[in-house]
Amino acid sequence: MDTKAAYQNLRKKVDNFVSTHLDKQEWNPAMNKNQLRNGLRQSVVQSGMLEARVNRIISQVVDPKLNHIFRPQIERAIHESLAAQKKRSCASSSSRT
Q1: What is the torsion angle, in degrees rounded to the nearest 10, for the CA atoms of residue 54, residue 56, residue 60 and residue 63?
Q2: Which residues of 34-67 are buried (b: 16+ CB within 10 A; e: fewer)?
Q3: pLDDT for residue 13 is more than 60
Q4: Which of 4, 7, 23, 34 has the most other CB atoms within 10 Å of its CB?
Q5: Contact 39, 28 (CB under 8 A)
Q6: CA distances from 96 to 5, 89, 90, 91 (A)
Q7: Which domain holds residue 65?
Q8: What are phi and psi of 17, to 5 degrees?
Q9: Pairs from 59-67 (Cβ < 8 Å, separation ≥ 24)
Q10: Separation of alpha carbons 82 and 15, rounded Å
Q11: How many independent structural domains does the chain possess?
């Protein structure tokens, strides 16, 4: 899955959003840049644009790999853990008798 296009689209949307937001600000050399930055950050977060698009990119990357890469590894780890528990259980049972 090529996520480069999705990432570039996201970046373009964020760049446009930031440009629009900054265009609405009246520049003053005495402005508190930290307040301006925090206001911009809050606007981006409140828009929901970033979260929705990042979630979509993550889904594009993770979902296709879920069943054929992650699931076998998770199952193997579970089987190894259960086998180790069974082995300990059998060892403790035989030492009691």
Answers
A1: 110
A2: eeeeeeeeeebeeeebeeebeeeeeeeeeeeeee
A3: yes
A4: 7
A5: no
A6: 63, 11, 10, 9
A7: 4-96
A8: -60, -45
A9: 60/1, 60/3, 60/6, 61/1, 61/3, 64/1
A10: 50
A11: 1
26 φ, ψ to 5°? Answer: -90, 120
What pLDDT does 96 receive?
Answer: 65
Q: How far apart are CA 10 and CA 54, in angstroms?
A: 8
Kindly state the tokens that stand for 75.
Answer: 């199952």
Tell me the pLDDT of the chain averaged across its residues: 87
- Higher pLDDT: 63 or 73? It is 73
**Residue scoring higher pLDDT (49 or 82):** 82
